[in-house]
Amino acid sequence: MYFNIGRNITNGLYYELHNKFIDYKKKVLLIYDVISYQRESGNTIFDKVGVKKISQYRGYLTRIDKYSSFDDFFLDHYSSSSRMKIRKNERKLKTNFRIKYNVVHKQIDRTDYDNIMDKLFELIEERFTDLKLDNDIVNKKEYYRELFFPMIKNGTAIIHFICNNNIPIAISLSFLSNDTLFYAVNTFDTAYRRYNLGHLSIMNILKWCFENDKKVLDYSKGTYEYKLRWANETYCFENHIIYDKSSLKCKMLTLWIIYYFKFKQFLRVKNINETYVKFKFLIANLFSKNKRANEKYELKDFNDDIEDDDYDIIGLDTLNDTIKSFINDLLYSKPQPITNVTVYWNKNTEVYVLIANGISKQITFKH
Hints:
The protein has 11 helices and 14 strands. The chain has helices at 70-77, 80-96, 110-131, 136-139, 141-153, 197-211, 225-230, 248-269, 272-284, 291-294, 321-333; strands spanning 2-3, 28-35, 49-63, 99-104, 157-164, 167-176, 180-188, 216-221, 233-244, 296-301, 311-314, 342-346, 351-356, 359-366.
C-alpha cells in the first residue's frame, strides 16, 4: 500500500490519472484529503484499475468570483445588523489599540519568520490550553515551521496578521494556488476574545482575495462558527483508494480500508472525536500545573482614594495575561485608547486597581 506524503495533515489535494499510469499491479494507492469540488478525479483508465471514494471531513469555502468587490459580497452575505456588529468590533479594536493589518508574501528573512512562528505556536498553545483541548499543530510544529518558509519565499503561501503595537494578536497562514486561497493555520490572542478577531481576520483575508484576483477562499476541514458564518458553499474531503482489481489481496486490503474510514466517520458523527481530543489533553497535562486555569480572583468596583504611599503604578507591558484580558474586556465596554488606563498595585493588600475614563475597578487574586 502507498499513500501521499503528508497523509491527512494536508489542506486538500487533487490528482489525475493519465494514460501513462501502468504501474498499478498488485498495489493499493491511498490518497488522503482529495477536494471534491476542485475537479472530477479518479477516472478509471483501465478495466483492471478500481477507484473507491470515501467521504470524510466536511469542508467550507467562500466563492467570491460572482462578486465585484468585498463590499458587494458583504452586503449580500450578511444582514445589516451582522455587518454593523462586525464593523463595531473593528472600530472598537482600532479605537482601543494601535492596530495594523500586515501581510507577508514572498519576502521575509529566516529570523523574522522564526519569530512569527514562535508567536503562532505560543498563541495556539495558550488558546487550546484555555479550551482544554489537544492540538496537532503544536505537536507537529517543526513540520509546519519547515513547510511554510520555502512556500512563502516562492509565493505559494502567505501570512496575514493583525498586530497591536507591532505585536501579532492574530495570525493566519494560508496556501495559494492560481485562483484559491486555502486557509490553513490560524489563531488569535485570547486576551482579545471579545473583539472577534477570527471574523476580523477573515474579513481582512477576503479583502486581499478580491484585490489579488482569487476566486475562492477555502477554509479547509473542520466545523467552526466562523466558517459557518462566512462560507457560502460546503463540500467533502474524500479519501480515494486506487487499486488493482485483478488482485484478490488488493481487493481485500481496499475493503478493509473502506470499513476503517467509514468507522472513523461514524465516530465523528457521534462526536467521539471531541471526547478523544479532550482525553488526549487530559493525559498530556495530567502532571502539569496550569496556573491560569487554577487562578481565582474577584473583580468589583473601586470606590476608594488612591493613596500614593500604598500603591505603585504598574506598566501595561509587564502585566500578566489575566489582567490584560480584564483591561481589554473593560475597554470593549468603554472604548478608549489603552494609554488612558493606569494600573495600580497595592503592596499591602496585593490588590490591582484599574483606572480609566469611566472605569474604576479592582482585582483581588485569591491564593
